[in-house]
């Protein structure tokens, strides 16, 4: 599939996360994702990329199930590109939050009921996979408000794995090691309060909402 020069330049910056064959599949899937008008399944992206009948669709599934690439490596390459283009100096403004990918099948890994901010009704619950997201907040010339560029993520496993706060702290640690000489300001909502933010290096700050039971002395 042919992609625009601008998109091709962005994807080339991520080549280092993949082998040559896997990078070719990655480019096809990205192009298909952007072109697909229906559900963005792997098969849907394969069809939208114009590969149906030309290359076996299993190649797209192997990209996620078997190909050797690391999501953190990919995310940090994307972050380096974003920093170079949008935040070459000053503090890096990071935001931690979570998003729920609704899934209802009984055999879906790590799917359970939890808070869903977009849910209708009073219970505010949804069932699916919850991903903790870390993004870089940047200013772009054509929008007055800040824009968040997601770069790292963690699938939350509920009681079977680290808490969302611990996952957020781990991702901030990755960014801190990748940019050892930059100030980093992290923002998260009340869900991300926790002891893991204590003893941060002086160049890293974390801002969140105070608990209702707390008061400033």
Characterization of the model:
This is Transposase. Pfam families: DDE_5. This protein has 217 residues and is α/β, with parallel strands linked by helices. The chain folds into 2 domains: 5-65, no CATH class; 71-207, no CATH class. It is built from 6 helices and 6 strands; from the N terminus they run αααααββββαββ. Strands 1, 2, 3, 4, 5 and 6 form a 6-stranded mixed β-sheet that branches. Helix 2 crosses helix 3. The radius of gyration is 19 Å and the shape is globular.
What structural class results from the helix and strand content? alpha/beta
Total number of helical segments?
Answer: 6
Please state roughly what percent of the residues sit in beta strands, choosing from under 5%, 5-15%, 15-25%, 25-35%, 35-45% or over 45%: 15-25%
Q: Describe the sheet with the most strands.
A: 6 strands, mixed
Oligomer: single chain
Output the helix-strand order. Answer: HHHHHEEEEHEE
CA(first)-CA(last) distance: 61 Å
Total beta strands: 6
Tell me, what's the shape? globular
> What number of structural domains do the residues give?
2
Mean pLDDT across all amino acids: 91
Considering DSSP H and I runs of 4 or more, what fraction of the residues is helical? Answer: 25-40%
Q: What ranges have pLDDT less than 50 throughout 5 or more consecutive residues?
A: none
Q: Compute the CA-based radius of gyration.
A: 19 Å
Could you provide a short overview of the structure?
The protein has helices spanning 5-12, 20-35, 42-48, 58-65, 71-86, 164-178, and strands spanning 92-102, 112-115, 125-138, 147-155, 184-188, 204-207. With 217 residues, the protein is an alpha/beta fold. It has two domains: 5-65, no CATH class; 71-207, no CATH class.
């Amino acid at each position: 599939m042919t992609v625009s020069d601008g998109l091709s330049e962005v994807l080339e910056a991520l080549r280092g996360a993949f082998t040559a064959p896997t990078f070719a599949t990655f480019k096809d899937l990205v192009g298909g994702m952007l072109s697909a008008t229906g559900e963005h399944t792997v098969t849907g992206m394969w069809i939208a990329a114009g590969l149906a009948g030309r290359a076996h669709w299993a190649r797209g599934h192997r990209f996620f199930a078997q190909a050797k690439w690391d999501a953190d490596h990919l995310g940090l390459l994307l972050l380096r590109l974003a920093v170079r283009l949008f935040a070459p100096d000053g503090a890096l403004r990071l935001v931690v939050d979570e998003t729920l990918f609704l899934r209802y099948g009984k055999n879906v890994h790590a799917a359970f009921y939890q808070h869903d901010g977009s849910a209708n009704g009073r219970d505010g619950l949804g069932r699916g996979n919850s991903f903790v997201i870390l993004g870089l907040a940047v200013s772009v010339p054509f929008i007055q408000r800040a824009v968040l560029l997601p770069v790292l993520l963690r699938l939350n496993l509920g009681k079977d794995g680290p808490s969302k706060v611990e996952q957020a702290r781990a991702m901030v640690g990755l960014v801190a090691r990748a940019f050892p000489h930059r100030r980093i300001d992290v923002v998260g909502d009340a869900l991300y309060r926790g002891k893991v933010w204590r003893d941060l290096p002086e160049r890293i700050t974390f801002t969140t909402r105070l608990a209702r039971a707390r008061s400033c002395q």
